[in-house]
Amino acid sequence: MVHPKNSTAVEVHHPQPITTHPPAPLLPVQPGTVPAVTSVVLPDGRVVTGYAIEPAKPEPVTHKPAVSRAAVNAALGGIGFAAVCGGLLMLTTFITALTAFVTQLITLATVLFGGYAAVQIFKPHEAKSGHTFHIRKAVIKRNRFYS
Question: CA within 20 to 30 Å of 2's CA: 17, 22, 39, 94, which one?
Answer without folding.
Answer: 17
